[in-house]
């Protein structure tokens, strides 16, 4: 049972974490370029926001499958690196869900690029401080990426 669950865990990490990490890192620049009126930047920002939110939600499978791997091989419960990896993965996911995606949503709303399903008619996006929001998205995106690098190192050592 260990091998199929471990394969799914590794595949989920590769398939979901790579794209979401790239999208989170590239979005601030694309959104700022769209705000400054660059031609195709709005389309890039939309795609990167969609990848961040969709793949970000699907990336929750990585720590969940990590826990499943731990249940298939009880000796893993004695290794602190696996506990640390799961905890760091959950912290990264919380940063994405509670900090990065809301800031991306504000930027998209300010650009009038939110889809109908994402737009709440009562929200006002007009007063966005672009410099501050962009810096915060870059900072939280860097922390998000760093956490995944640390998790990858913990998985290999």
TrEMBL record:
<keyword id="KW-1133">Transmembrane helix</keyword>
<feature type="transmembrane region" description="Helical">
    <location>
        <begin position="137"/>
        <end position="156"/>
    </location>
</feature>
<keyword id="KW-0472">Membrane</keyword>
<keyword id="KW-0812">Transmembrane</keyword>
<feature type="transmembrane region" description="Helical">
    <location>
        <begin position="84"/>
        <end position="101"/>
    </location>
</feature>
<protein>
    <recommendedName>
        <fullName>DUF2269 domain-containing protein</fullName>
    </recommendedName>
</protein>
<feature type="transmembrane region" description="Helical">
    <location>
        <begin position="57"/>
        <end position="77"/>
    </location>
</feature>
């Amino acid at each position: 049972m260990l091998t199929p669950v471990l394969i799914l865990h590794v595949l989920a990490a590769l398939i979901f974490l790579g794209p979401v990490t790239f999208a989170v890192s590239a979005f601030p620049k694309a959104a700022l370029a769209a705000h400054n009126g660059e031609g195709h930047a709005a389309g890039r920002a939309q795609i990167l926001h969609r990848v961040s939110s969709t793949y970000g939600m699907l990336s929750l499978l990585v720590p969940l499958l990590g826990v499943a791997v731990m249940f298939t091989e009880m000796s893993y419960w004695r290794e602190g690196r696996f506990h640390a990896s799961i905890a760091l993965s959950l912290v990264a996911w919380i940063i994405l869900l509670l900090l990065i995606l809301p800031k991306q949503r504000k930027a998209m709303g300010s650009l009038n690029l939110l889809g109908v399903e994402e737009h709440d008619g009562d929200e006002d996006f007009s007063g966005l401080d672009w410099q501050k929001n962009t810096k915060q998205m870059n900072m939280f995106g860097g922390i998000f990426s760093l956490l995944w690098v640390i998790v990858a190192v913990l998985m290999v050592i």
